[in-house]
Each structure stands twice: as C-alpha cells, then as structure tokens.
Write a structure and sequence with these properties.
Length: about 100
C-alpha cells in the first residue's frame, strides 16, 4: 500500500492487510509523526475505533471536532506568538509603547 508516510498496518499480502485493519489497533500517531496534538490523536482514535458505538456516528460530528481542534490550535499559536512578542520587548519599552485601544 502506497501513501504519504509509513503504513499504519502491515502485511505480506492484501488479505493480511485487510485482517490487520479489522483486528489490530493502529499504532499511535506519535510513532509516525511528532509532535501530534493530543486532541488530534483522540479524534483519529475515535474515528478508527473497532467498536462502532465508540466511532463518530456522522461525518458532521467528525467535522465539528476537527473544526474545534483547528480553532484551538489557531488560538494557541496566536497566544504563543503574542507571548513571544512580549517577551522579546524589554519591560521598559513595553511601558513606553502606546496601547491599542481595541
């Protein structure tokens, strides 16, 4: 099986791969790519759950979780960038800077 990274399941023959998909739990994403946000690992694990009752029941539910994760990651990057900017400017200079009224 070709893809854009290491295979999540392995097998000598296609039938072995199919059995592996049905029976084996995939390795954690962190083994294939680092760093992986915990929330993304949780979403992928839920989507791939062997128990159909634990999987997403609709694509809309999966989409909502992915959108929420995207917003959280965007906000955390924005906060990190803001903190880094503040950290680079000495405190004396920050006090002298005009404040943004917004």
């Amino acid at each position: 099986m070709n893809g854009c990274g290491p295979a999540a399941v392995h097998g000598t023959y296609d039938s072995h791969v199919r059995v592996s998909i049905l029976d084996d739990n995939p390795a954690p994403m962190v083994q294939h790519s680092e760093p992986v946000p915990r929330q993304l690992e949780r979403i992928v694990s839920k989507a791939l759950s062997k128990d159909r009752n634990k999987r997403y029941q609709t694509v809309t539910d999966l989409k909502l979780d992915l959108e929420q994760l995207r917003e959280e990651l965007h906000l955390s990057r924005s906060d990190a960038g803001h903190k880094m900017t503040k950290a680079r400017v000495p405190a004396q200079q920050r006090r002298a800077m005009p404040r943004n009224p917004n």
